[in-house]
Amino acid sequence: TGVQTCALPICKVVKGKSLPFNRLSDHQLEYLQRFDSISSKHQGAIAVMFYNGLKGKASIRRAWLIPIGEWVSLLRRANRKSLPMSYCESRLSRYELVRKDGVWLIP
């Protein structure tokens, strides 16, 4: 059998183009870091979805998984209070969202 990885995301939905760093509380950060440290097969992450609330072609719904180690690194070195969507667009793999039975899913 192949090596399997187990990811534990904490989900954040943001109306706008940036995720404030303070949206992840201290206990959530600690929990993800503890999970991440169990083994190399465990990864704590933040699942973030950016949207603008518009309908049709003007609608924006984009999602990314941000590994907790990367989040902590950004938090420590950032000279800002939030993570811009442009950072995710340029450095992370994007996940397409599908709506099923009123719920947004990453297929």
Describe what is shown at a glance:
The chain has 107 residues and is α+β, with helices and mostly antiparallel strands. The chain is built from three helices and eight strands, in the order E-E-H-E-E-H-E-H-E-E-E. A hairpin with a 2-residue loop joins strand 7 and strand 8.
List the helices and strands and how they pair.
Elements: E1 6-15, E2 18-20, H1 26-36, E3 42-51, E4 61-67, H2 68-77, E5 82-84, H3 85-91, E6 94-95, E7 98-100, E8 103-105
Parallel strand pairs: 1-3
Antiparallel strand pairs: 2-5, 3-4, 4-6, 7-8
What is the first-to-last residue Cα distance?
24 Å
> Structural class given helices, strands, pairing?
alpha+beta
The level of helicity is 25-40%
Mean pLDDT: 84
What would the principal axes of the Cα set say about the shape? Answer: globular
Largest sheet: 4 strands, mixed
SS field, number of helical segments:
3
Number of strands: 8
- Going across the major beta sheet, what is the strand order? 1-3-4-6
Radius of gyration: 15 Å
Weakly predicted, low-confidence segments: none
Provide the succession of SSEs: EEHEEHEHEEE
Strand content: 35-45%
Description:
This protein has 107 residues and is of the alpha+beta class. Helix content is 26%, strand content 38%. The chain contains three helices and eight strands. It has helices at 26-36, 68-77, 85-91, and strands at residues 6-15, 18-20, 42-51, 61-67, 82-84, 94-95, 98-100, 103-105. The strands form three sheets. It has a four-stranded mixed sheet. A two-stranded antiparallel ribbon has the order 2-5. The longest helix has 11 residues, at 26-36.
